[in-house]
Structure formats: C-alpha cells, structure tokens
C-alpha cells in the first residue's frame, strides 16, 4: 500500500466512490498511528471545497417550524423517522406481533395450514377452500370460481371484495407469504396488516355481525388497526393473544424462534397467555413497550421499554439488528433471503451484533459482519456455510 | 452584557427550555443559514439540507425539557443534532464503518467550531488553490466538484481511464489540504 494508493482511496471514499473492498482497506488503515488525523484533515479540506455561503429561506423555515410544533402540541402526535419516511399515527393502532404455528382461536385448524409454503408465490386460500396464488412482484386481479370474491393485488397491497356479506360463522381465509417476500393486506374493516416473509395470517372475509375481530398469525406482522370500540381486534398466536384497544403494533412469533414478542407503537393493547380469556389476567402494554415470552416459560411475559424503530424497520425494507445473537440473525437472514445458512462456527452463534441494512444484498451484510469478527463463508446453490476463519 | 438578552447564551437556553417562541425565532435568525450551509457542504443536496436543518430545530424543541447544554455549546449541540439526523438517513454507512463516520463527524464539528474570520480566510485560500491546480487536474476536479459528475462519467467525457480520474482527484485534494495545513 503506497501513500498514493491510500490517498486515492480516501479521496474516493470522501467522494462516495469507494468500493466495499476499498472501504475495508481504509477502515484498517485509519486505525493505525496518526492516520486518523490525516484522514480528518482531508475531510476538512473537502468540506471547504464544498462549502458555499448561500442564502436560505430562514423566515419561511421558522414559520413552518411554528406550525409544526403547534400541531405537535395539540395532537401529541408521535413522529418517528425511518430514513426519509415520516409516520404520523393520530388515531390508528400499530402493533407488531410475531408468533408460531398453532392458533388459539382455532385449535383444530392446524390442518388448514397445509399445504406448506413451498413456492415463491403468495397463496390465498379462500373460505370456500379455493386457493389463489399471486406473484408478489406484479399486480393482478383475480375472481374466485364462484365469482363472489374478487381479490386484487396492487403495488404489494392485497385487498378482497366479497359480493355478499359473510355470515358470522364464515370460514377463514388463509394468506401465506413465502420466504423472501412481504405483503400488505387490507382487511374488510380497513385495518392494514403488513406480513413479513414466511408468515401466515388467518382472517375472515368480513367482520360484519361478529362481536370480535379475530385473526390468527404465525410469523411476524405489523398491524394498523382501524378503531372500533364495539368490536375489539384480537390477534392470536401460539403462545399468546393480543387484544387491541385501538393501536399500532408489531408481533413476531415464528415457530423456529424461541421468543414471541409484541411491540406496541401507538395506542393500547392487552397481552395474555393462550389459555386465558379476555376477562382473565391481561397485562397492558404502553407505547414503546415490548412484551416477550420464551417458549416453555408457561405463559410468563417480560415487559420492557424499547426503541420501536428497529422492530418495525422491516416494514420499510430495512433489516435491523439490535444487540442480537448471530444465531437469531441467521434465522432472520434465512427468512429474508429465502436461503439456507449452515453455521459450523459455534462460537460465532453466541456473538451479538447491532446493525441496520437497507440494501437487499446478503453478501454485503455478511461482509459487514466479517469486518467486525472473523469467519469464512462459502455459497453453494441455495446454501451458505459459515466456518471458522481459515488460518493464514 | 444584559442578562436578559438573547445574545446571552445562558438566557437564550433558559428561554428555549421554556419553549419561548421568541427565543426560537432568535435561534433561527442566529443559526439557520449557517446550519443549512454546513449541512449542504456535507450532503451536497440543498433540499435535503433544508429538511435536515428543520428537523434539527424541531428535535431541539421536542427535547427542550431535557436540554443539557454546557457553557457556550448551544451551536455545537444544534449542529450535532443535525449531523446525527444526516447520519440516520445514511444508516448503512454509519453502522458499516462507524469509525470512519465518527472521524468524519469530528472533522466536520471541528470546522464548525473555527472562528468565522479564520473560516473565511481558509475558504478563500482553497478557492485560490483550486485556480492553481495543473490544467488537466483542475478540469477533472471541477467536473467532479462543481458539476457533480461521478468518476465514471468524467472518464467517459474526457476519454481517460477511471484510474486517471482517481489520481487527479487524489492529487487535487492533497494539494488543497497542504495549503490548509498552514492554518490548522
């Protein structure tokens, strides 16, 4: 590495032209000796090159500022940022829920879960047993054979129209999202459910005439529940149920994960074990709280305060890990990228990582983790094998 | 100095904590332009810069109860919020090479803390030095910095290799930095 080489790389980095390999080289270089100072001086020189004394609309900006803070004060709107997206939840309820295969609300419905997810298609099994499949990447409108149901997929959002109102005891629809995909679904009451990859949701075509809005989930989903105090919204999962009192939340409960969790973004929800009833022992969650239950904990929940952003970033296509064990990260990568990862480097599984990725490139994610710890990996077909680092 | 003047930072901070509209007005008057210029030099995007600056003021307001500002560090506090907002929007790089990004942040905050007249002097120095760059080096440099072309676009436009572009750019930055060293 000559001095010219490294200067060339720093300059590229500053001009956002550096390749990942060059960034790795630079990262190693800057850790040595006085290099940090050299690097900073070059950054400062570049800053001066770019600096221009412009005039800005300060008065207009201040006016907008006053409007924004007044709005915030009057509505107490919670605003959080995810990249460029700004959410404002005034009345909706958002809930992130994750859970596994057996549903409390339909204990004998396990047979409904077959056939297993084995294609790249999103499948919707209608209440009459008919199965419709969709390519998640293109828009489509499909009419059921009976002609009574029209299902349309537009820009990744699925909605369903039934000619007649369903009877209260209508059978459920089963929506399956394959690994590597995600999908939004608008329910009949206007609630929106965003399903993460490898998740299944069971829901009725209509909530008309029932006293509770009940859905069942395996996997992970983000709920924006339409307010309706007369019809509580309930999400059932393997280990727990969540009753919504008007809210935004995320549930994660994959069968293969040892933890089921509910993260509340806005509103109010109650959490209970699967054998409890609504009138039973329900624990209330406040916004920015997470309830989690380990398998075999006998329905005990741990409730803690969290920053919700990492839990719901997947809804924006951002993969986020917050001090998570590599073994858990591997499970998530498998689901996200629909790939098999074999870890033969045992100690790595226990190491914890924090990171965020908004790019759907598995190689890049693995290389980034490699920059912090040593391991080797190889790819063959649809399987990635992680091994201890090769001795140099 | 009048203890009840907004030019007195302690008083200003006190009023900001109380949410005084007037105090925020003063804060805008004092720092908005400079903050926008500062972020624009980092992002290279005027719209994004205005947006980040606005979010920074709002964030300061939102956290006004918790404002814990040491003597004469209000400006640094505000600029730091803005820089962190910028980082959030580029989370990938932030997490990927945290060390490099935190060094960049130190470097930028260092710039913001320099005395205004010294800063002006350096700006002029840089401008003059750009004029003194060797012919071909200057052409490449201007295409990148003033026209905003990517290295690849420059190489195509001038029919030179990307490697040559890289070398010219590195050379230009080194020369400009060398001039500045006299001041640092």
Structure description:
The complex is a heterodimer of chains A (392) and B (184). In chain A, helix 1 crosses helix 2. Chain A has helices at 3-14, 20-30, 35-50, 58-75, 309-312, 326-337, 346-350, 362-370; strands at residues 78-82, 85-89, 93-99, 122-125, 131-134, 140-143, 149-154, 157-162, 172-177, 183-186, 192-195, 199-204, 213-225, 233-236, 240-253, 259-273, 283-285, 289-294, 302-305, 319-325, 340-343, 352-357, 376-380, 383-387. Chain A contains eight helices and 24 strands. The longest helix of chain A has 18 residues, at 58-75. Chain A is an alpha+beta fold. Chain A has a 17-stranded mixed β-sheet that branches. In chain A, a hairpin with a 2-residue loop joins strand 7 and strand 8. The two termini of chain A are 19 Å apart. Chain A has three domains: 3-50, no CATH class; 93-310, Sandwich (Jelly Rolls), CATH 2.60.120.1440; 318-387, Phage tail protein beta-alpha-beta fold, CATH 3.55.50.30. Chain B has two domains: 1-113, Rna Polymerase Sigma Factor, Chain: A; 115-184, Winged helix-like DNA-binding domain superfamily/Winged helix DNA-binding domain (Arc Repressor Mutant, subunit A, Orthogonal Bundle). In chain B, 78% of the residues lie in helices and 0% in strands. The two termini of chain B are 32 Å apart. Chain B contains ten helices and no strands. With 184 residues, chain B is mainly α. The model of chain B has no long low-confidence stretch (mean pLDDT 86). At the A-B interface, helix 1, helix 2, helix 3, helix 4 and strand 22 of A face helix 2, helix 3, helix 4, helix 5 and helix 6 of B.
Give a quick rundown of the structure.
The complex is a heterodimer of chains A (392) and B (184). With 392 residues, chain A is of the alpha+beta class.
């Amino acid at each position: 590495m000559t001095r010219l080489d490294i200067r060339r790389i720093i300059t590229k980095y500053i001009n956002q032209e550096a390749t990942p390999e060059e960034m790795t080289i630079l990262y190693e270089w800057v850790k040595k000796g006085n290099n940090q100072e050299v690097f900073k001086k070059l950054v400062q020189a570049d800053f001066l090159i770019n600096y221009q004394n412009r005039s800005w609309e300060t008065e207009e900006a201040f006016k907008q500022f006053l409007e924004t803070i007044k709005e915030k004060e009057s509505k107490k709107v919670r605003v959080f940022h995810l990249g460029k997206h700004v959410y404002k939840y005034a009345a909706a309820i958002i809930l992130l829920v994750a859970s596994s295969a057996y549903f409390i609300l339909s204990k004998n419905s396990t047979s409904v879960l077959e056939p297993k997810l084995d294609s790249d298609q999103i499948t919707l099994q209608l209440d009459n047993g008919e199965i419709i499949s969709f390519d998640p990447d293109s828009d489509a409108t499909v009419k059921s054979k009976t002609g009574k149901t029209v299902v349309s997929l537009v820009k990744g959002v699925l909605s369903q129209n039934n000619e007649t109102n369903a009877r209260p005891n209508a059978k459920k629809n089963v929506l399956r999202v394959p690994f590597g995909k995600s999908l939004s679904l608008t329910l009949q009451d206007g609630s929106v459910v965003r399903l993460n990859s490898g998740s299944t949701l069971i829901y009725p075509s209509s909530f008309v005439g029932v006293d509770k809005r009940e859905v069942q989930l395996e996997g992970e989903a983000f709920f924006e529940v339409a307010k309706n105090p007369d019809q509580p919204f309930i999400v059932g999962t393997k280990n727990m149920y969540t009753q919504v009192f008007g809210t935004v939340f995320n549930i994660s409960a994959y069968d293969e994960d040892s933890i089921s969790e509910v993260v509340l973004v806005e509103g109010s929800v109650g959490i209970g074990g699967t054998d409890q009833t609504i009138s039973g022992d329900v624990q209330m969650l406040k916004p920015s709280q997470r309830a989690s239950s380990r398998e075999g904990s006998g329905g005990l929940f741990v409730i803690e305060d969290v920053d919700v952003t990492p839990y719901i970033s997947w809804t924006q296509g951002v993969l986020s890990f917050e001090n998570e064990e590599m073994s858990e990260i591997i499970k998530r990568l498998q689901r996200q990228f629909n790939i098999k990862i074999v870890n033969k480097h045992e100690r790595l599984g226990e190491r914890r990582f924090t990171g965020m990725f908004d790019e759907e490139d598995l190689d890049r994610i693995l290389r980034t983790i490699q920059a912090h710890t040593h391991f080797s990996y190889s790819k063959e077909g649809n399987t990635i094998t992680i091994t201890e680092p090769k001795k140099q | 100095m009048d203890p009840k003047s907004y030019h007195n930072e302690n008083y200003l901070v006190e009023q900001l904590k109380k949410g005084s509209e007037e105090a925020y007005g003063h804060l805008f008057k004092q720092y908005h332009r400079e903050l926008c210029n500062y972020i624009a030099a980092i992002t290279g995007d005027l719209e994004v810069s205005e947006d980040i600056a606005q979010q920074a003021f709002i964030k300061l307001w939102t956290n006004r109860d918790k404002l814990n500002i040491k003597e004469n560090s209000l400006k640094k506090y505000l600029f730091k919020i803005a820089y962190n907002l910028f980082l959030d929007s580029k989370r990938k790089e932030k997490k990927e090479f945290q060390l490099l990004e935190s060094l960049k942040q130190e470097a930028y905050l260092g710039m913001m803390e320099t005395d205004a007249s010294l800063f002006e002097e350096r700006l002029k120095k840089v401008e003059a030095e750009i004029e003194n760059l060797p012919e071909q080096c200057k052409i490449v440099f201007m295409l990148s910095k003033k026209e905003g072309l990517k290295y690849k676009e420059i190489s195509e436009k001038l029919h030179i290799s990307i490697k040559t572009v890289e070398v010219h750019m590195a050379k230009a930055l080194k020369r400009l930095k060398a001039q500045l060293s006299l001041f640092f």
